[in-house]
Structure formats: C-alpha cells, structure tokens
Amino acid sequence: MPLYTLDLVGIKAAHNFRDRTFIVATSYIIMGQTVGNMKKAFGVERPDGSNKRAFPSGHTASAFVGAHILYKEYKDVSPWIGVAGYAVATGTGVMRVLNKRHWLSDVVAGAGVGMLSAEAGYLLLPVFHKLFRIKDNSNNLILVPSIGMDNYGIGLAYSF
C-alpha cells in the first residue's frame, strides 16, 4: 500500500505509523460492515444477473477508502499523490461497470461509502488516543538479524 511505502522513500505522511494503522483499520472495518449491511438490505441484482448483492460496490468502496486516506495523509506534500489514488479508485469503479458486475449507481454509492468510512476513521482517532492514553507520537522500529542452523532472516519489532 502506498500509504506505508512512501515513508520508505522519505515522503512524510501527516500521521505516524501507529495512527495511520488505526485510521486504515477502522476505516476498512466501517466500510466492510456498511457495504455488507447495505447489500443485504437493498438486494439489487447485478447487471450480469449472477446475484442480488450489487449495491453498493464493495471493490469501489475499498478503493476509495485507500484513495481518500492517501489524499488526507499527503495533501500537504503534493496534491498529485491524492490525484493518483483517486484515479486508481475511479478506474476500479469504471472496470466494475464495464465488466457488468455493477450499475453506475453501485459504484457511485461505493465511492461515497468509502470516502465517508475514511472520514470516520479520522474522526475516531482522538477517541483512540483518549481510550489508550496516548500522548506522544514516538514509535520505535527495531530490525534484528535472525540466524539459525538452516535459515537466515530478519526479525522486526515495532512498538507504539
């Protein structure tokens, strides 16, 4: 996910690793539950007739969660990072329609659910901080070589 790999090339996000991970996890949980409940409640048939779980598009919702978080984290660095995320997410929705898996309304709703889920993840971040009494933004990453009789590797420990 670009949200984490951009750190490796020195592009700093708005939030630290711990907070971004909370935002991502919370956003995707909210999106998944919302999409699943809406699909059951509305029962819209797919264009190809394969089932009645078209509305809203879960693939599009998932893509827009990622795109919106990417935008929010890097909008002050470069608007083009967000544009790239939204372009990929839009492409996901377009392909779902072209492949006759969704109606246009399904992907538009999926995009909305995705972006709103990401916003909810950001709104819940202060609650997370208060609940776990998090006051600083320090993170510690430790890489340790691991050498065994027949194997080699690297151990990773991350504290937050």
UniProtKB/TrEMBL annotation:
Protein name (record): Phosphatidic acid phosphatase type 2/haloperoxidase domain-containing protein
Domain Phosphatidic acid phosphatase type 2/haloperoxidase: from-to ranges: 22-122
Annotated transmembrane regions: none
A Pfam cross-reference name: PAP2
InterPro entries noted in UniProt: PAP2/HPO, PAP2/HPO_sf
